[in-house]
Specification:
The complex is a heterodimer of chains A (242) and B (780). Chain A is of the alpha/beta class and 242 residues long. Chain A has one domain: Class I glutamine amidotransferase (GATase) domain (Rossmann fold). Helices cover 21% and strands 24% of the residues of chain A. Chain A has helices at 14-24, 67-77, 87-94, 151-159, 218-230; strands at residues 3-7, 29-33, 44-47, 81-85, 101-103, 111-119, 135-142, 146-148, 163-168, 187-191, 197-200. Chain A has a 9-stranded mixed sheet, sandwiched between helices. The longest helix of chain A is centred in the C-terminal third of the chain and has 13 residues, at 218-230. Chain A is globular and about 45 Å long. Chain B is an alpha+beta fold and 780 residues long. Chain B has 3 domains: 14-43 and 223-404, Alpha-Beta Complex (Phosphoribosyl-aminoimidazole Synthetase, Chain A, domain 2), CATH 3.90.650.10; 66-204 and 462-569 and 583-593, PurM-like, N-terminal domain (60s Ribosomal Protein L30, Chain: A, 2-Layer Sandwich), CATH 3.30.1330.10; 446-458 and 595-780, Alpha-Beta Complex (Phosphoribosyl-aminoimidazole Synthetase, Chain A, domain 2). Chain B contains 27 helices and 28 strands. In chain B, helix 8 runs parallel beside helix 10 (273-288) and helix 19 runs parallel beside helix 20. Chain B is globular, with a radius of gyration of 27 Å. Classes of the chains: A alpha/beta (242), B alpha+beta (780). The A-B interface holds A 9-10, 12-13, 15-16, 19-20, 23, 49-51, 53-56, 109-113, 139, 141, 143, 170, 203, 205-206, 209, 211-213 and B 173, 176, 180-183, 272-275, 277-278, 281, 365-366, 453-465, 467, 476, 478-479, 591, 687.
């Protein structure tokens, strides 16, 4: 089993993702430079948070054209696990690997704080160690996390179980007050049709040790490890009820 | 060489006095040309040369067993043991932040980060100390504030408030913009609002970086700004040079402001945090590859400062060819290239043979690395443009031989105390402590800073153990069982009233803040913000502050490893309170000792450590407390007494209690006094919140003075009932007063004195008031 953490020049959560896989999960992990165009030998790829190429234009708008994203697309089509966190989620949407877009936060300001997420689908390779409806305390830190998609797309995501996490109250209620950025239907994370590509705005790598205030994010990495142990990466899929 | 003649007007425009000009002529043995005059003007500016402050700064303690690098380099370095070390420094960016708040603050952050990674340390934490004019209307006050009565119509006031809010929003936005993209957590700091900062905001940026243990030597590898080895290559890396920031150091930072301030906007630099992130990675990789012998960032005075300082420190000379300097504009003159303060640039010195390695690393990160010159033996900074020599100056004359001024000083008369018969003192009797408590919770200086720190990524790099809002920020050191604690503290009002005592109080509070989270104070950096040093009373206050700081730093064994002086914080001749800010760093040797202010468990005992005896009502009114400011519009004429020996004993006692594992929480009593400290312990406990029930069974004269005085050397602790006798015994042995206050309870916050309720409210409700206020004010 081998994880890869993609490094764009402006990635700044790459070290954090690497640390969690290496030192908390104790799994093999390597860096993947953004100019790499193939991902042979990897079983899971993490697109970390940050500002890929500065993102002065639009988050992920340049990253989608990078060599590594071509490789990530092929890797995902082959069934490999791809987790996009924050900027990684933005890049997955820009690249068309996930539907929708992340607009500027409703409050127009950067927001960094702990939020609560309700687990909407716990049958994915990213969530199988979580229980249905489990509420996780995980921080967000972004300027553009306001998820948008057309009503049809949102309906489709919901009906196919592809909304993975929603912003909620600590008790798991979904309401406006629990929505930190104006995201449509409180959506914090979604996956692709095959269920092997997930993007989320909150940072599970910042919530994987209790010393940092929460270890709730660890379940996501544990799920990925379990998925990789129990199934070769090429046959991960079909976990979403289509 | 065809250049403008140097007239007395040109000399004056460069901020150079006639005497200084004669000195330049003596050094060169001839008149300087315009480029040389420009070079002298920035290097001999107050900002770069410390010409007014150096004679005083020498008195500060700078040595200690843990100090690996003291003042004089880009940042101080302190040993943590086991091959780890940290570099840290604080620096002001006040003037640019007034002219252009967003970019001024952003480039302040960029500059201090470069100072840290120049040394070879990866930045792992940033903080900032900010001062603005008031943002809350005085309509909510009892009467117009002192010194402003009659001078300001409501319309005027409203526009001033709006202006101050605009500066606040711009500064906070700029700090977030830079730090968030760069990927350094902004983990804390301080913000205060006071009239004197209205047209002179203070933006002091702090950064701290970590040296990992070097796998080869087992020691931290520290890089210095030295151009050693004649013949070595001088290499320019990073962003291209433009016309931005020319004369930032000399004209912006070293003079007062007036109605022409807006026209100085082009003197402010523009920041590109993404480029700086790439520069960081490339520089660290180059250091890891052992490819360079010296490095210095191009900050204030850009290419001029970096070349002359590196040569002066290395006992060498440097010769550069401007034609090779990467430029983003065409037609730049030698004068402009030498004085540009374009951001995100560095100067490296390396052995010739390493050039291909260096270029390889920088091109991987999409950056220029160009050889622009070489190190020479003759001690001269020689600048050529297309081969022609355009400047030739001894490097040491620029870096080390700036004029030193022992400027005249004159003690200011002590401020007049308000008399017992004063109508303001009468007001005090009519103030109900419960009402005062509610007002203080939403005071602009005491309310939650959440609106600010939420705009900063304070968790990136996954080391932040205590979120912003506590006594000190705590950053763990990965792969060890240790953490670093950091705090910034300054009290302009105290230093205005009594500069020496104010400085002592600031140092004491900084150390106390570190101790409250379980850290042993190690060392400090300081940022000294003052008005015009040519005014004898300001120079006197500066000197007093240095003496107070020296005395306190010696008492706490915390040497000062570097810092920054910012003079000329005056607009229209009106200056700020002299405001020294301490950046204090401590170490927590065992993560198990990490302590935070929030109450932890229902039923725990709450107690106060230190002397609770309040000042007399007259003293209380005159002490410049937040209570006096908000309730009585009194700005203060004395400061509370600080006995260093007693303070040190309190801090040692707190550390002993923490190390013995007896405490569940610990919090310093400071602005707003005991009542606000208790509220902060409740707010930090949740959500969901714990409250408290405090019952004072003994008679108190002057209830407000008791609950809201800001005497130093006190802390609030909570602990399990079973620990009480042990804690009492330790306090008795150390002769530290110990007073039980009450218990931690669910939901409600209750203060009671002799069966009379002072306050009795759900914590949620109080929290809302405290938590929302800054956001509300900022969006007005």
């Amino acid at each position: 089993m081998k994880f890869g953490v993609v490094v764009f020049p402006g990635s700044n959560c790459d070290h954090d993702a690497f640390y969690v896989i290496d030192r908390v999960m104790r799994q093999p992990v390597e860096w993947v430079w953004h100019e790499t165009d193939q991902l042979k030998g990897f079983d899971a790829i993490i697109l970390p948070g940050g500002f890929s190429y500065g993102d002065y234009l639009r988050t992920g708008a340049i990253a989608r054209f990078s060599p590594v994203m071509k490789a990530v697309r092929a890797f995902a089509e082959g069934g490999g696990l791809v987790l996009g966190i924050c900027n990684g989620f933005q890049i997955l949407c820009e690249s068309g690997l996930l539907p929708g877009a992340l607009m500027r936060n409703r409050g127009l300001k950067f927001v960094c704080r702990h939020v609560y997420l309700r687990t909407e689908n716990n049958a994915l390779p990213f969530t199988q160690r979580l229980s249905a409806g489990q509420v996780l305390k995980i921080p967000i830190a972004h300027m553009e996390g306001n998820y948008y998609a057309s009503a049809d797309t949102l309906d489709e995501l919901e009906s196919q179980g592809r909304v993975v996490f929603r912003y909620s109250t600590p008790e798991g209620a979904i309401d406006e007050a629990a929505n930190p950025n104006g995201a449509a239907r409180n959506i914090a994370g979604i996956c692709n049709r095959a269920g092997n590509v997930m993007g989320m705005m909150p940072h599970p790598e910042r919530a994987s040790e209790s010393l940092l205030g929460s270890a709730d994010g660890r379940g996501i990495f544990e799920s990925m490890v379990k998925a990789l142990v129990s199934a070769p990466s090429s046959r991960l899929a079909e976990t979403v009820h289509d | 060489m065809i250049e403008a003649l140097i007239s007395p007007e040109v000399v004056e425009q460069h901020g150079i006095t006639p005497q200084e000009y004669l000195r330049i002529v003596a050094i060169l043995g001839r008149d300087p040309n315009l480029t040389e005059l420009g070079i002298f003007s920035v290097m001999w500016s107050e900002h770069c040369s410390y010409k007014s402050s150096r004679v005083h700064l020498k008195r500060l303690p700078t040595a200690g067993a843990c100090v690996l690098q003291g003042p004089g380099e880009n940042a101080g370095v302190v040993d943590l043991g086991d091959g780890y070390a940290i570099a840290f420094k604080i620096e002001s960016h006040n003037h640019p932040s007034l002219v252009e708040p967003f970019q001024g603050a952003a480039t302040g952050v960029g500059g201090i980060l470069r100072d840290i990674f120049t040394m070879g340390a990866r930045p792992i934490a940033a903080m900032n100390s900010l001062r603005f004019g008031r943002i809350k209307s005085s309509e909510s006050m009892e009467s117009p504030p002192q010194g402003r009565a009659g001078s300001s119509t409501p319309d005027n006031e409203e526009s001033e408030l709006r202006q101050n809010r605009r500066i606040l929003s711009g500064v906070v936005g700029g700090i977030g913009f830079y730090g968030n993209c760069f990927g350094v957590p902004t983990v804390g700091g301080e913000i205060y609002f006071e009239d004197c900062y209205a047209k002179n905001p203070l933006v002091n940026a702090f950064a701290l970086g970590l040296f990992e243990r070097d796998s080869r030597s087992g020691k931290p590898r520290i890089f210095l700004g030295r151009a050693s080895g004649p013949g070595n290559a001088v290499i320019y890396v990073g962003a291209k040079t433009g016309r931005d920031g020319i004369h930032g150091a000399s004209l912006l930072a070293s003079s007062e402001f007036d109605e022409t301030t807006a026209s100085k906007r082009p003197n402010v630099q523009v920041g590109d945090p993404f480029l700086e992130k790439c520069l960081l990675e490339a520089c660290l990789e180059t250091m890891e590859a052992d490819a360079i012998v010296g490095i210095q960032d191009m900050g204030a005075a850009g290419l001029t400062c970096s070349t002359s300082e590196m040569a002066a420190r290395g006992d060498t000379g440097i010769e550069i060819e401007l034609n090779h300097v990467p430029q983003r504009e065409t037609g730049m003159s030698p004068y402009e290239i030498m004085l540009s303060e374009s951001q995100e640039r560095m100067l490296l010195v390396a052995e010739r043979g390493r050039m291909p390695d260096i270029q390889g690393i920088f091109s991987k990160w999409g950056l220029d690395a160009v050889e622009i010159g070489r190190v020479t033996k003759d001690g001269i900074l020689r600048v050529r443009d297309h081969g022609e020599v355009v400047a030739e100056i001894p490097a040491k004359a620029l870096a080390d031989e700036a004029p030193l001024y022992n400027r005249p000083m004159k003690a200011r008369k002590p401020l007049a105390l308000l008399e017992k018969s004063s109508p303001r003192l009468k007001n005090l009797e009519s103030v109900q402590p419960g009402d005062a408590f509610m007002r203080l919770l939403s005071s602009e200086n005491l309310c939650s800073r959440r609106w600010v720190y939420q705009q900063y990524d304070h968790m990136v790099r996954t080391n932040t153990c205590i979120l912003p809002g506590a006594d000190a920020a705590v950053i763990r050191i990965k792969n060890t069982n240790r953490a670093i604690a950091i705090t910034l503290d300054g009290n302009g009002r105290y230093c205005y009233v009594n500069p020496r005592e104010g400085a002592r109080l600031a140092v004491a509070e900084a150390c106390r803040n570190l101790v409250c989270v379980g850290a042993q104070p190690l060392a400090a950096t300081n940022c000294l913000n003052f008005g015009n040093p040519e005014k004898p009373e300001i120079m006197w206050a500066f000197s007093e502050v240095i003496d107070g700081m020296k005395e306190a730093c010696e008492a706490f064994h915390t040497p000062i490893t570097g810092g920054n002086v910012s003079f000329y914080n005056e607009t229209f001749g009106k200056g700020i309170y002299g405001t020294p800010v301490m950046g204090m760093v401590g170490v927590i040797d065992d993560l198990a000792h990490l302590t935070s202010p929030g109450f932890k468990r229902e039923g725990d005992v709450i107690a106060a450590l230190g002397d609770l005896t309040p000042p007399t009502e007259r003293e209380f009114l005159n002490q410049g407390t937040e209570f006096a400011r908000v309730l009585l519009n009194a700005s203060g004429a004395q400061v509370p007494a600080l006995i260093l020996e007693r303070e040190k004993r309190l801090q040692d006692t707190i550390l002993t209690l923490i190390h013995q594992g007896t405490l569940h929480s610990c919090h310093d009593v400071s602005e707003g006094g005991l009542a606000i400290a208790l509220a902060e312990c409740a707010f930090a406990s949740g959500p969901p919140f714990l409250g408290c029930e405090i019952e004072i069974q003994f008679g108190i004269e002057g209830l407000s003075a008791w609950w809201f005085n800001e005497n130093p050397s006190r802390a609030v602790i909570s602990f399990e009932v079973g620990q009480q006798s042990r804690i009492e015994a330790i306090c008795r042995r150390q002769e530290i007063p110990f007073q039980i206050l009450g218990r931690v309870r669910k939901h409600d916050f209750k203060l009671k004195h002799l069966n009379n309720w002072i306050i009795q409210q759900p914590v949620d409700k109080l929290f809302g008031l405290w938590d929302q206020e800054l956001e509300r004010l900022s969006t007005l």
